[in-house]
Design brief:
279 residues, Rossmann fold, 44% helix, alpha/beta, seven-stranded mixed β-sheet
Length: 279
Protein backbone atom coordinates (compact mmCIF):
# COMPACT_ATOMS: atom_id res chain seq x y z
CA UNK A 1 0.00 0.00 0.00
CA UNK A 2 1.17 3.50 -0.79
CA UNK A 3 1.19 6.05 2.01
CA UNK A 4 -0.54 9.13 0.52
CA UNK A 5 -0.58 11.07 3.79
CA UNK A 6 3.21 11.17 3.92
CA UNK A 7 3.59 12.14 0.27
CA UNK A 8 5.53 15.35 -0.30
CA UNK A 9 3.01 16.67 -2.83
CA UNK A 10 1.14 19.78 -1.67
CA UNK A 11 -1.70 18.81 -4.00
CA UNK A 12 -2.14 15.40 -2.37
CA UNK A 13 -2.09 16.88 1.13
CA UNK A 14 -4.59 19.56 0.09
CA UNK A 15 -6.95 16.95 -1.36
CA UNK A 16 -6.81 14.84 1.78
CA UNK A 17 -7.56 17.87 3.95
CA UNK A 18 -10.37 19.20 1.73
CA UNK A 19 -12.12 15.89 1.22
CA UNK A 20 -11.78 14.89 4.84
CA UNK A 21 -13.75 18.03 5.69
CA UNK A 22 -16.33 17.27 3.00
CA UNK A 23 -16.77 13.55 3.68
CA UNK A 24 -19.70 13.50 6.10
CA UNK A 25 -22.07 15.57 3.94
CA UNK A 26 -20.53 15.01 0.49
CA UNK A 27 -23.25 12.71 -0.88
CA UNK A 28 -26.02 15.03 0.22
CA UNK A 29 -24.47 18.26 -1.10
CA UNK A 30 -22.76 17.38 -4.37
CA UNK A 31 -25.00 17.75 -7.47
CA UNK A 32 -23.61 14.71 -9.27
CA UNK A 33 -25.57 12.53 -6.83
CA UNK A 34 -28.85 13.84 -8.23
CA UNK A 35 -31.02 11.17 -9.89
CA UNK A 36 -30.74 12.53 -13.44
CA UNK A 37 -26.94 12.45 -13.29
CA UNK A 38 -26.79 9.04 -11.60
CA UNK A 39 -28.99 7.66 -14.38
CA UNK A 40 -26.78 9.15 -17.08
CA UNK A 41 -23.59 7.72 -15.56
CA UNK A 42 -25.25 4.35 -14.98
CA UNK A 43 -26.02 4.15 -18.72
CA UNK A 44 -22.36 4.73 -19.56
CA UNK A 45 -21.22 2.06 -17.10
CA UNK A 46 -23.77 -0.43 -18.48
CA UNK A 47 -22.42 0.13 -22.00
CA UNK A 48 -18.84 -0.35 -20.81
CA UNK A 49 -19.79 -3.59 -19.06
CA UNK A 50 -21.40 -4.90 -22.25
CA UNK A 51 -18.43 -3.93 -24.40
CA UNK A 52 -15.77 -5.42 -22.12
CA UNK A 53 -17.37 -8.59 -20.78
CA UNK A 54 -18.15 -7.23 -17.29
CA UNK A 55 -14.88 -8.27 -15.67
CA UNK A 56 -13.22 -6.23 -12.91
CA UNK A 57 -13.50 -2.43 -12.63
CA UNK A 58 -11.09 -0.01 -10.94
CA UNK A 59 -12.31 3.44 -9.93
CA UNK A 60 -9.52 5.90 -9.15
CA UNK A 61 -10.36 8.70 -6.75
CA UNK A 62 -13.42 6.72 -5.67
CA UNK A 63 -14.36 9.09 -2.82
CA UNK A 64 -17.53 8.03 -1.04
CA UNK A 65 -18.37 5.49 -3.74
CA UNK A 66 -20.35 7.36 -6.40
CA UNK A 67 -19.15 5.10 -9.24
CA UNK A 68 -18.86 2.00 -7.04
CA UNK A 69 -22.53 2.23 -6.04
CA UNK A 70 -23.58 2.40 -9.70
CA UNK A 71 -21.23 -0.31 -10.99
CA UNK A 72 -21.11 -3.11 -8.41
CA UNK A 73 -23.92 -5.16 -9.99
CA UNK A 74 -22.53 -4.69 -13.51
CA UNK A 75 -19.04 -6.13 -12.90
CA UNK A 76 -17.58 -9.21 -11.22
CA UNK A 77 -15.53 -7.05 -8.84
CA UNK A 78 -15.17 -3.31 -8.36
CA UNK A 79 -12.10 -1.76 -6.72
CA UNK A 80 -12.00 1.77 -5.38
CA UNK A 81 -8.75 3.69 -4.89
CA UNK A 82 -8.48 6.96 -2.98
CA UNK A 83 -6.07 8.96 -0.80
CA UNK A 84 -8.67 10.08 1.75
CA UNK A 85 -9.72 7.49 4.39
CA UNK A 86 -12.58 9.70 5.61
CA UNK A 87 -14.20 9.51 2.18
CA UNK A 88 -13.73 5.76 1.81
CA UNK A 89 -15.30 5.19 5.23
CA UNK A 90 -18.61 6.26 3.69
CA UNK A 91 -18.48 3.65 0.90
CA UNK A 92 -21.27 1.08 1.19
CA UNK A 93 -19.52 -2.30 1.17
CA UNK A 94 -22.69 -4.35 1.63
CA UNK A 95 -22.82 -5.67 -1.98
CA UNK A 96 -19.81 -7.85 -1.12
CA UNK A 97 -17.76 -7.33 -4.29
CA UNK A 98 -16.48 -3.82 -3.51
CA UNK A 99 -12.83 -3.56 -2.46
CA UNK A 100 -11.01 -0.43 -1.28
CA UNK A 101 -7.34 0.53 -1.41
CA UNK A 102 -5.75 3.65 0.07
CA UNK A 103 -3.32 4.76 -2.61
CA UNK A 104 -2.40 7.49 -5.04
CA UNK A 105 -3.76 6.79 -8.50
CA UNK A 106 -0.38 7.67 -10.06
CA UNK A 107 1.12 4.54 -8.42
CA UNK A 108 -1.51 1.81 -8.40
CA UNK A 109 -0.61 -1.31 -6.39
CA UNK A 110 -2.03 -3.74 -8.96
CA UNK A 111 -0.50 -6.03 -11.58
CA UNK A 112 -0.55 -5.28 -15.29
CA UNK A 113 -3.78 -6.29 -16.98
CA UNK A 114 -5.83 -6.69 -13.78
CA UNK A 115 -8.98 -4.86 -14.92
CA UNK A 116 -11.29 -4.63 -17.91
CA UNK A 117 -12.57 -1.13 -17.10
CA UNK A 118 -11.14 1.92 -15.34
CA UNK A 119 -13.10 4.98 -14.22
CA UNK A 120 -12.41 8.41 -12.75
CA UNK A 121 -15.29 10.72 -11.90
CA UNK A 122 -14.41 14.33 -11.06
CA UNK A 123 -10.82 13.28 -10.35
CA UNK A 124 -8.28 14.13 -13.06
CA UNK A 125 -8.43 17.88 -12.42
CA UNK A 126 -7.41 17.20 -8.80
CA UNK A 127 -4.04 15.80 -9.93
CA UNK A 128 -0.85 17.68 -10.68
CA UNK A 129 -0.03 15.31 -13.55
CA UNK A 130 -3.11 13.52 -14.78
CA UNK A 131 -1.16 11.87 -17.61
CA UNK A 132 0.73 9.85 -14.99
CA UNK A 133 -2.61 8.56 -13.72
CA UNK A 134 -3.73 7.77 -17.26
CA UNK A 135 -0.54 5.78 -17.82
CA UNK A 136 -1.12 3.79 -14.63
CA UNK A 137 -4.72 3.04 -15.52
CA UNK A 138 -3.64 1.96 -18.99
CA UNK A 139 -1.03 -0.36 -17.44
CA UNK A 140 -3.52 -2.16 -15.19
CA UNK A 141 -6.11 -2.58 -17.97
CA UNK A 142 -6.27 -5.64 -20.18
CA UNK A 143 -5.71 -5.22 -23.90
CA UNK A 144 -8.95 -3.81 -25.26
CA UNK A 145 -9.92 -2.55 -21.80
CA UNK A 146 -11.68 0.80 -21.51
CA UNK A 147 -11.33 3.90 -19.36
CA UNK A 148 -14.08 6.40 -18.62
CA UNK A 149 -13.58 9.82 -16.97
CA UNK A 150 -16.22 12.47 -16.47
CA UNK A 151 -17.02 15.87 -14.94
CA UNK A 152 -13.71 17.33 -16.14
CA UNK A 153 -13.79 21.15 -16.20
CA UNK A 154 -13.92 22.30 -19.81
CA UNK A 155 -11.28 24.98 -20.31
CA UNK A 156 -13.28 26.69 -23.06
CA UNK A 157 -16.19 27.19 -20.66
CA UNK A 158 -14.16 28.24 -17.63
CA UNK A 159 -12.17 30.75 -19.68
CA UNK A 160 -15.33 32.23 -21.18
CA UNK A 161 -16.89 32.67 -17.73
CA UNK A 162 -13.81 34.31 -16.23
CA UNK A 163 -13.24 36.56 -19.24
CA UNK A 164 -16.85 37.63 -19.74
CA UNK A 165 -17.28 41.42 -19.75
CA UNK A 166 -21.06 41.25 -19.23
CA UNK A 167 -22.09 42.98 -16.01
CA UNK A 168 -23.91 40.84 -13.46
CA UNK A 169 -26.95 43.11 -13.54
CA UNK A 170 -27.29 42.57 -17.29
CA UNK A 171 -27.53 38.78 -17.04
CA UNK A 172 -30.75 36.83 -16.68
CA UNK A 173 -31.26 35.64 -13.07
CA UNK A 174 -30.71 31.95 -13.91
CA UNK A 175 -27.57 32.76 -15.88
CA UNK A 176 -26.13 35.00 -13.19
CA UNK A 177 -26.81 32.31 -10.59
CA UNK A 178 -24.85 29.71 -12.59
CA UNK A 179 -22.00 32.09 -13.41
CA UNK A 180 -21.66 33.12 -9.78
CA UNK A 181 -21.40 29.44 -8.80
CA UNK A 182 -18.17 29.25 -10.78
CA UNK A 183 -16.75 32.67 -10.06
CA UNK A 184 -17.38 32.27 -6.31
CA UNK A 185 -16.78 28.54 -6.02
CA UNK A 186 -14.05 28.86 -3.39
CA UNK A 187 -16.24 31.12 -1.23
CA UNK A 188 -19.20 28.74 -1.48
CA UNK A 189 -17.12 25.72 -0.51
CA UNK A 190 -15.68 27.64 2.42
CA UNK A 191 -19.20 28.54 3.58
CA UNK A 192 -20.70 25.07 3.03
CA UNK A 193 -17.86 22.92 4.34
CA UNK A 194 -15.64 25.24 6.35
CA UNK A 195 -12.76 24.59 3.96
CA UNK A 196 -10.21 27.38 3.57
CA UNK A 197 -10.52 28.76 0.04
CA UNK A 198 -6.78 28.69 -0.65
CA UNK A 199 -6.64 25.04 0.40
CA UNK A 200 -9.51 24.28 -1.95
CA UNK A 201 -7.70 25.99 -4.83
CA UNK A 202 -4.58 23.92 -4.09
CA UNK A 203 -6.65 20.73 -4.33
CA UNK A 204 -7.77 21.50 -7.90
CA UNK A 205 -4.65 22.58 -9.80
CA UNK A 206 -6.29 22.33 -13.22
CA UNK A 207 -8.73 25.13 -12.44
CA UNK A 208 -5.88 27.57 -11.84
CA UNK A 209 -4.07 28.95 -13.74
CA UNK A 210 -5.14 26.91 -16.80
CA UNK A 211 -8.85 27.20 -15.97
CA UNK A 212 -9.71 23.64 -16.83
CA UNK A 213 -8.65 20.95 -19.25
CA UNK A 214 -8.57 21.46 -23.02
CA UNK A 215 -10.09 18.84 -25.31
CA UNK A 216 -7.04 18.42 -27.55
CA UNK A 217 -4.65 18.25 -24.59
CA UNK A 218 -6.78 15.53 -22.98
CA UNK A 219 -6.86 13.57 -26.22
CA UNK A 220 -3.09 13.87 -26.63
CA UNK A 221 -2.47 12.84 -23.02
CA UNK A 222 -4.56 9.70 -23.50
CA UNK A 223 -2.65 8.68 -26.61
CA UNK A 224 0.69 9.38 -24.92
CA UNK A 225 -0.39 7.22 -21.97
CA UNK A 226 -0.78 4.22 -24.27
CA UNK A 227 -4.43 4.21 -25.27
CA UNK A 228 -5.21 3.41 -28.90
CA UNK A 229 -8.53 5.31 -29.02
CA UNK A 230 -9.57 8.49 -27.22
CA UNK A 231 -13.03 10.02 -27.60
CA UNK A 232 -13.80 13.34 -25.86
CA UNK A 233 -17.34 14.72 -25.69
CA UNK A 234 -18.87 17.89 -24.24
CA UNK A 235 -21.27 17.54 -21.30
CA UNK A 236 -23.82 19.66 -19.35
CA UNK A 237 -24.39 22.91 -21.20
CA UNK A 238 -24.97 26.17 -19.35
CA UNK A 239 -28.54 26.21 -18.05
CA UNK A 240 -29.24 22.53 -18.76
CA UNK A 241 -30.41 21.90 -15.20
CA UNK A 242 -32.90 24.77 -15.37
CA UNK A 243 -34.32 23.51 -18.65
CA UNK A 244 -34.45 19.91 -17.43
CA UNK A 245 -36.36 20.74 -14.25
CA UNK A 246 -38.42 23.57 -15.72
CA UNK A 247 -39.37 22.34 -19.19
CA UNK A 248 -38.51 18.65 -19.11
CA UNK A 249 -36.03 16.16 -20.54
CA UNK A 250 -37.27 16.45 -24.13
CA UNK A 251 -36.61 20.19 -24.24
CA UNK A 252 -33.20 19.77 -22.60
CA UNK A 253 -32.25 17.07 -25.11
CA UNK A 254 -33.43 19.18 -28.05
CA UNK A 255 -31.19 22.07 -27.01
CA UNK A 256 -28.31 19.66 -26.48
CA UNK A 257 -28.69 18.25 -30.00
CA UNK A 258 -28.66 21.74 -31.50
CA UNK A 259 -25.56 22.77 -29.57
CA UNK A 260 -23.82 19.55 -30.59
CA UNK A 261 -24.56 20.24 -34.25
CA UNK A 262 -23.16 23.76 -33.90
CA UNK A 263 -19.88 22.57 -32.33
CA UNK A 264 -17.07 23.58 -32.13
CA UNK A 265 -18.49 27.12 -32.09
CA UNK A 266 -20.61 26.19 -29.07
CA UNK A 267 -17.87 24.36 -27.13
CA UNK A 268 -17.56 27.18 -24.60
CA UNK A 269 -21.19 26.68 -23.52
CA UNK A 270 -20.51 23.21 -22.07
CA UNK A 271 -19.23 22.99 -18.50
CA UNK A 272 -17.55 19.60 -18.58
CA UNK A 273 -15.68 17.07 -20.68
CA UNK A 274 -16.25 13.33 -20.78
CA UNK A 275 -13.63 10.98 -22.19
CA UNK A 276 -13.74 7.30 -23.08
CA UNK A 277 -10.50 5.58 -24.03
CA UNK A 278 -9.66 2.08 -25.25
CA UNK A 279 -6.34 0.36 -24.67
Amino acid sequence: MNNPASDSSDTVRANIAVHSAMAQTYNEREPHFRPENRNAVRRVLSELAEQTGAGNLIDIGCGTGFILSLAHDLFAEVHGVDVTPAMMERVDLSPGNIHLTESRCERLPFDDGSFSVGTAYSVLDHLEDYQAALSEVCRVLVKGGMFYADLLPNRAFWSAVHESSVDSASRAPWLDREVQMYLRQQELVEADYGVDRELFIAAEPWKKPTRGIATEELRAAGMAAGFSEVHVTLQWYLGQGDVLHGEGAEAADQIRRYLDRAAPLTAHLFKYLRVIMRK
